[in-house]
User: Fold this.
Amino acid sequence: MRGVLLDLDGVFYVGDEPVPGGAEAVAWLVERGIPHRFVTNTTSRPRRGIVAKLRAMGIEVDAADVLTPVVAAAAWLESEGCRHPALFVPEATASEFAELGVAGAEPSGSADAVVVGDLGSGWDFATMNRAFRLLAEDPGIPLVALGLTRYWRAEDGLRLDVGAFVRALEYASGREAVVLGKPAAAFYRAAVDSLAEAPDEAVMVGDDIRSDVEGAQRAGLPAVLVRTGKFDPADLDGAIRPDAVLDSIAGLPEWWRNRAIGGGIDESTGEVLTARDGSQEGGP
Assistant:
């Protein structure tokens, strides 16, 4: 492996609380020149807000290092000639669309796409129904999903994420969303392309067994699951098998070193394998 894709929420922080060892893990990647990108389905804040949050936690990052669904969606909308989408996203995220050259539609105006992101507590019946009506009244406009994450872990517990609202709109409108975030394979390919590495030469690290692990594996990448964020022990009992399991992002450097000298995780049992130097990797 020559590159790393890193999820953010649940891996480097939970809410505003940093995960211990995250800054040190990124510093280790930087020191060794290991290409890496931060890939997130977060649409509640623009990239500049994500960068500011990471830097406040001591994590070295530039905007170009962060791939979000907004960036992917803006490029897709432009390629499809959709210049006036109805944006169901927070105000800060809508402003990033504008910065990327996409003008959102006015609530009373016509729209050439419906874009759904992490609106959070901004959802109510009227807002959800407006999105549905736009889709129902014009079967030709696409439903664009900024990811399909089902839920995430905030400081006060689990919260519904964008996937739940997208699925409701798909069901009501009878159409399938264009997904421009995890777990879409195209999103992972774009992230890998930004590393200039082949898919089987990069590894995904995340806390979501479906969006991060299953999504990456379907795109041809090995995937590492961390026991932080939304991780649930039951994740290891299902059909989806991560290529490795770490206690947290802090264990990434040791896992990387052990992998290079012969250590690993038994994919059939989830048991920790001993590396050639006699040490063990973080795992179940």
